[in-house]
Structures are given as structure tokens and as C-alpha cells.
Write a structure and sequence with these properties.
2 copies of one chain form a homodimer.
Chain A: E1 4-10, H1 14-25, E2 29-35, H2 39-47, E3 53-55, H3 58-62, E4 67-70, H4 77-84, E5 93-96, H5 102-111, E6 117-119, E7 121-123, E8 144-147, H6 158-170, E9 174-177, H7 180-208, H8 218-224, H9 231-240, H10 242-265, H11 268-283
Parallel strand pairs in A: 1-2, 1-4, 2-3, 4-5, 5-6, 8-9
Antiparallel strand pairs in A: 7-8
Chain lengths: 287, 287
Amino acid sequence: VSWCARAAILGVGLIGGSLGLALKARGIAAQVVGWGRDEGKLRHALSAGVIDAIELDPGEAVRGADLVIFATPVGSFLQLAKSVRASLAPGALVLDVGSVKGALAASLHGAMPPGVNYVPCHPIAGGESSGCAEARADLFEGVLAIVTPVEGTEGTDPGALARAMEFWELLGATVRRMSPEEHDRIYALVSHFPHLAAYAIVNAVGEIDPGAIGYAGRGFMDTTRVALSSPDLWQEISLMNRENLVRCLEAFERSIGEIKHYLSTGDPEGLARVLARARALRETIGH
Amino acid sequence: VSWCARAAILGVGLIGGSLGLALKARGIAAQVVGWGRDEGKLRHALSAGVIDAIELDPGEAVRGADLVIFATPVGSFLQLAKSVRASLAPGALVLDVGSVKGALAASLHGAMPPGVNYVPCHPIAGGESSGCAEARADLFEGVLAIVTPVEGTEGTDPGALARAMEFWELLGATVRRMSPEEHDRIYALVSHFPHLAAYAIVNAVGEIDPGAIGYAGRGFMDTTRVALSSPDLWQEISLMNRENLVRCLEAFERSIGEIKHYLSTGDPEGLARVLARARALRETIGH
């Protein structure tokens, strides 16, 4: 008997596609049905064996599913929840994989019909790539999966939370639990802000001399790789977490100002001290 | 007959060590002698087969060498040039691998004794790692090697320049020629500035919540990897190229300000446009 009889994956891109492959490879779901806006891409995912069946209507996709995963861009979650609400099966577990939690988690929680439990999740996997063609069954092995239950007496059901945590563990992830607000504060810092910084680095080069980019080496490639990420997706994520992000960018302006100060005053010890402070912190997470 | 009879490598770290391995693997030099400040590290490089012989005095290392390569941190080049000047063999070709050219190239050019030719070089190889243990014979294959001849009638000898270009081609690099000033302007943009930006990203995280770094995923690792680079080396490089760098950081502040503006005003189209502009430029150099 599978952990889940019918899993519906809404959005079969890099994350959704990798979930499909992993659910099938590990025998977690007996059947995986996929929904997405682009029928051509869905048919490609089906023929690639990423999903077992496709539905062109999200309501049909979730009908009878005991596990439903929202894997579209975060900006579409609320509308999607509304459009599948009437079709969700009683007892279904609904998860998402969005990079922002906070108010969105609370809204999705409130949008579920009675008897359906939603658990906000964020697997720290994926990256600047997108699309089902990049999907991998082992994408979640060894990564962090953050679960952010909505707190309070009317909050996330403890049984559903336990089941969501078990789900990510079955995929090989290490589960961490925190509040939606704590998630957004932390991931502003270590994900959303660095994305915006990478885009800003490229735009600064573009302002001064776009042609210089042809001389870039590996360091530049690494530092700006996430600027290959989808502008639409990252615009959505950034605006949903804008208060934390503005705070990060203000701290960033101070840390750039500190470096500029030592450059302008020509202070080697001061500059080396600032760089060494960054390196010491960066070293704590390895190469 | 080898391209060079005796090559002296001053500074046997990642770049110097890789040069030693490549010169030997490709039969470019009949003998490779290494000098460095740390006798223990030199002996380790010798026993690892990175170099054929060691010298504890830089003057002794360059004596009789027809090829001399400065591969120590750029801040030490001028002092090193003074200390080997009297021992350089007439006809010797002197190269460096420093990340800054500009005034330093002119100074080194002026520090050479009669009959010795110096060609300023910068192979775009290496990275945040350092030390001979990371050295690889193929480090220069397929990378750019920039040569920046000092211009004018008293400038770099054309024959020496041709020989330096041939040297990098023998190592598998693609050679590009530009002026020392053009080099510093371009590499401020695509190397020095992104390094400072990466250090500043980590310091911004450190200011707000150093503990958050433990939640980082691959995007953060990529974006800040070069902040693992040596603070002493990058302090030297940054101060030697400070005028270009201050200009880059000012453009960077504008590009961050642009993003902050669209976050603050909550403008999805404006923000997506800024991110898309960055992605379009970043895409021109691939993944």
C-alpha cells in the first residue's frame, strides 16, 4: 500500500516535476496526476514519465486526491486555491512549495474547505533553472524542507503537520519547523535578498559597460548565477516579502558603504578586517 | 628542446602551483624551480611534483632562469622585483599573473634591468581557493589570458609580448590583448566589484542575523562563494583598483536603489522589468 493513493501536482515545472519523479521512484504515491496551464508542457511531462496522468482543469486534477501539492509560482496560489476548493476531497492533505510563507500561508490556510488540511512547506531545492526538463527524482535528497504551521487554536492541524513532515522525510529531506514569519525573515536574508543582489550586480555592470561581461570568469558566473532565475517568479516572491527585503537592502547599503569608506580612505587594515569578517561567517557553511 | 630551459615560479600557491604542473605536464619547461616565503609549503610542493627544485632566496630562484613568473599576491610584486632585479638573467622573460594591472604594470616595467623584458599578464583562472594543494595542470585550459603590454616607445618589447602570448597559448588559454587601464576598468566590473559585493552580502546577513546562514541553499552558496577568497589578497587588489571600484559601487548603489524603489512602491511590472534586464545580460554568458 502506497503512502498516498493519488497525488495531484499543480504546476509541473522543476519542483513539481521532481516531486512527480520522486513520488514514483520511491513508491510514495500509487498515481501522480499533473495539472498545468501549458498543455504541451504537460504532455511532455507525461511522456517523460514525470507524471502518470494529466488534467487540463485543476479541479479535476485534485478530485479524489489524498495529496495535493501547489507547485506553481507563488503569485498564483490564492487563485488556484479558490478554483480547486470545491473539488478537494475531505481528508486531503494540501502542501505547497512556495518560497514565501507569512500572510500567504495564513490566506491559504483560511481558503481550505472543512476537512481539508493545508500545511505550508518550502523545500530548499531548485535554483535558477526552471522547467520540467530539469526535474530530478533526487532533487530533495539531503536538502532542508521547512514546514511553517499556522499557529493558534484555529491553526494547522497537528496530525496533518506530522504527515507533511513525514512526506518530506520520505523524499530524503531534513525537516525544520518554524513559524511563517520566521521563515520569511530568514529566507529574505539567505535567499530573496541574495537574488536581488545578484540581479543588481548584473545591472550595475550593464550600466557601466555591458560588453565587459564577456570577460567574466568563474567568480562572476557563480556570484550572478541566480540572476538567471525567472523575473516574474522573483518579482512575486520579492513583493510578498518586501518589508523584510527592504530591511535587508538597507543593511546591504550599509555594508557596501563600509567597504566604500575603506576604499576611499585607502585603509588596508580596515578593508581587510571587513572582508575577513564576511569570510569567517561564510566559512561556517563550507564551500 | 623545451620552450624554456629553466622557469622560476615565485609564489607556489594555486596559480603558481598549477603553472608548475602545466609547464611540466606539457614539456614547456625543462626545469621548474619554485620560491615562496613558507619553506614547509615549498617542500610540500616539491614532494608533490609541482616543482622540480626549491630555492629559499628569490634571487637564487631567478638566477639563470629564462622565464620568471610572479605568482605571489599582487601587493608583494614591487618589493619582489627589487629583490630579484640584480639576479635576473639578460634575455629573461618576466611575467606576472596579478589581477590588477594599471600603475602596477608600469612600475614593474620600470623596475626591470636592461635586457630583461616584463609582460603584464592576467590569466582568468583560480578562484576562491588558494594553496598549492588545489593546483591542477589543466587550470589554464580554455580560460582567457589577458596580456596588457605597457604602451609607448619605451613600452613592452613586441618580441617579448609575442612570446608571452605564445606561452599562454601553450597552456591552452585563449589570449586577449588590452591596455593595463582597460584591463583594470573591465576587471573592476566583472571580478573585483562582484567580490566586494559578495563580501558585502555576507556582512549584511551577519548584521541582521548571522544564525540565518545555516538555512542557506545552493543559491546563497553560489552567490557568496567568492567571499571565501583571501581578505588580504582582495584588500590589496581592491585598493590598487579603487577608483574604478568606487565607480562600480556607486552604480551598484543605484541599481539597488532602483529595486528598492519598486519594492517600496509595490510595482510588479517595474520590478519584473528591472530583473528581466539583468537576466537578459547575464544570459549572454551562459549558465
